[in-house]
Recover the amino acids of this structure.
């Protein structure tokens, strides 16, 4: 750890705070309080106590932010050359890197995640801006052959004002993967971070402004989903919505969008399988499973929450997995323990309830299964890393997203059975496959109903790879060049050429 980072962490750990956090919504290029004056608190999940307050917005603040974005769309932003737009995003990427330590400490304190993971998320956010910066001047259309007397072409126009609803599990990453392509496409944005983790979105908006983004192009309204999120997604001035969160809230957002015929991307949850075959590299599979479910304490939409394992390897693999899980230490995120807390008291209660209910239905615990007593720093929200083997694949613990450090185990005898188990939930976000056999990996990759497949390395790839779900996991794709297309619409122009 560098001395500068060390000092920031020390300050945050001893005082429980970070000095100089942004105060207010970011609207029209400046921070301002809620029009109602309302505020709310954000918690440090490692201690279970409030550490800072922020503006609690409502529909009046949302109206103002959408108005600022609409005006910005008609100003300097529209007239700016795409290459210049790209330079601003590139500068933003550099500023994120320059401020990485502070961003990561704030992200870790606010969300509970491990500092090392927060640093990775911040680097990923910078990478998203770098990636899309290079796309600004390459949003090319086509020309269509209409014969000698006509001329046809397409333009990729910005969608307009886009709304971004951000969850608490990956605050800066999710903000960056939506904002970077939207801005690259020439849109103006209004983001609503989760009320549990409002600060890094505000810091990001400030850095974008410092990078040269004109006033009003990027706005952030903080507050609850009901008070600030709902009026944003229902606003007639919004031209596109990118929502990441729960299925239930996503359905409500889709209904709100329908009233205004607003296009949207829904990135909802998952119950993603990790298929482990007896011929695999066991060490790689163990590493993959550990990362897939215990990173960010399992609060990942694409968590590998179901181990689906060949019967002949099952006992040996589970033995080694339990060993590794038992060695995971719990602690405050800023101390970089084996695993951090979960994000909220509500999330902890949900996890506890789901595992306890599975146990009453006869599920067997191989590890964990209870909450832990907080950290040396206080009564944080900790749940032990858990492995649970249900009696049946139809059990709720296998079918429903827990969003915590809870891995289920299912055995199989044949490739066909593995495929059926992989496709055996209502979700279709991700699947991991560990096998040495190329043909099998690609047969399964073809036949599994999921938006992305990881072969022999869970979470392989980066911003280049499109990401999104099938079925109840949602629709639309973020990241990659597909992610850019959410923020443009095609206009076709056909002309007659007179002789
Ligand atoms: P949520 O879906 O209600 O919250 C996500 C975001 O939506 C937050 O910014 C929230 O303020 C906003 N929101 C809430 N109601 C809204 C509305 N009516 N209109 C517009 N925006 C609204 O999820 P919550 O309650 O935080 O977590 C519940 C469960 O959802 C978790 O246990 C987990 O299973 C799942 N979840 C999945 C995520 C993912 O990455 N796919 C992220 C967060 C939660
Ligand atoms: Mg918080």
């Amino acid at each position: 750890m560098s001395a500068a980072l060390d000092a920031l962490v020390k300050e945050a750990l001893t005082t429980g705070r970070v000095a100089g956090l942004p105060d207010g919504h970011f609207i029209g290029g400046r921070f301002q309080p809620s029009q109602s004056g309302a505020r709310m608190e954000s918690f440090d999940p490692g201690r279970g106590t409030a550490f800072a307050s922020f503006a609690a917005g409502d529909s009046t603040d949302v109206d103002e932010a959408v108005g600022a974005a609409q005006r910005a769309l008609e100003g300097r932003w529209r007239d700016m050359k795409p290459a210049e737009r790209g330079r601003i995003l590139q500068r933003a990427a550099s500023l994120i890197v320059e401020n990485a330590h502070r961003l990561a400490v704030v992200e870790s304190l606010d969300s509970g995640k491990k500092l090392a993971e927060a640093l990775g998320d911040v680097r990923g956010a910078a990478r998203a801006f770098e990636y899309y910066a290079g796309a600004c001047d390459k949003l090319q259309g086509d020309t269509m052959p209409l014969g000698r007397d006509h001329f046809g072409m397409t333009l990729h126009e910005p969608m307009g004002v886009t709304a971004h609803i951000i969850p608490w599990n990956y605050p800066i990453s999710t903000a960056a993967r939506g904002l970077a392509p939207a801005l690259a496409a020439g849109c103006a944005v209004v983001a609503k971070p989760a009320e549990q983790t409002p600060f890094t979105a505000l810091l990001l908006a400030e850095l974008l402004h410092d990078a040269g983004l004109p006033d009003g192009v990027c706005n952030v309204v903080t507050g609850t989903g009901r008070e600030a999120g709902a009026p944003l997604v229902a606003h007639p001035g919004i031209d596109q919505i990118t929502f990441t969160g729960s299925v239930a809230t996503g359905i409500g957002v889709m209904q709100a969008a329908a009233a205004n015929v607003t296009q949207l991307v829904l990135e909802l949850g998952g119950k993603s399988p990790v298929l482990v075959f007896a011929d695999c590299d066991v060490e790689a599979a163990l590493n993959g499973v550990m990362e897939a479910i215990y990173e960010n304490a399992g609060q990942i939409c694409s968590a590998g929450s179901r181990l689906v394992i060949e019967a002949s390897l099952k006992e040996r693999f589970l033995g080694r997995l339990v060993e590794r899980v038992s060695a995971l230490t719990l602690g405050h995120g800023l101390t970089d323990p084996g695993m951090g807390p979960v994000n909220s008291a509500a999330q902890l209660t949900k996890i506890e309830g789901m595992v306890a209910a599975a146990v009453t239905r006869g599920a067997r615990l191989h590890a964990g299964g209870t909450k832990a007593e907080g950290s040396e720093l206080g009564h944080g929200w900790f749940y032990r890393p858990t492995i649970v083997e249900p009696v049946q694949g139809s059990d709720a613990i296998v079918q429903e997203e827990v969003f915590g450090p809870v891995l289920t185990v299912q055995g199989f005898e044949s490739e066909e059975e593995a495929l059926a188990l992989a496709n055996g939930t209502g979700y279709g976000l991700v699947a991991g496959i560990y096998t040495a056999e190329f043909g099998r990996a690609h047969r399964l990759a073809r036949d599994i109903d999921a938006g992305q497949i990881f072969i022999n390395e869970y979470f392989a790839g980066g911003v280049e790879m499109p990401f999104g779900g099938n079925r109840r996991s949602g629709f639309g794709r973020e990241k990659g060049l597909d992610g850019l297309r959410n923020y443009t619409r095609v206009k076709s122009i056909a002309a007659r050429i007179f002789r």
Summary: The longest strand covers residues 150-158. The radius of gyration is 23 Å.
